[in-house]
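Response to reviewer comment R2.3. The reviewers asked that we include at least one raw input/output pair. We reproduce the pair for Phasin domain-containing protein here without editing.
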Amino acid sequence: MAMAGPLPNERDRVEFSLMSREKSEAASESIQAMGSGFVSLSMALATDTSKHIWATSAAASALASSQSLTQWIECQAALLKIAAASPANPLQLANSTARLVQESLAPIHDRATANAKRLGVL
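Raw output as returned:
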């Protein structure tokens, strides 16, 4: 745009229009990808959390109703195993979020790369 100067020719105006439309389309696709990604991530997190809550409740009930020391130890081990497998793993959530951001930015990256190739920059 800077090279075209204050009075761009027809070819430059067509290119500017194309770039503008592509930027709008890429932003729209990016927002859609981010929205659907957050919905999917939220649903997966909610599902994992509810499964964990039910499993924890069942294990705690089994522990509370233990009839012997052996049964109590087995139930305690099962409860600890459930606690260790918590779905609120921060690393897993960070990885999922990073992947979501990468997927959301893909339309913008693809358009920018295509523009650079078309304009002979790459």
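The chain has a mean pLDDT of 88. The CA atoms of residues 116 and 122 lie 6 Å apart. Further pairs are available on request from the corresponding author.
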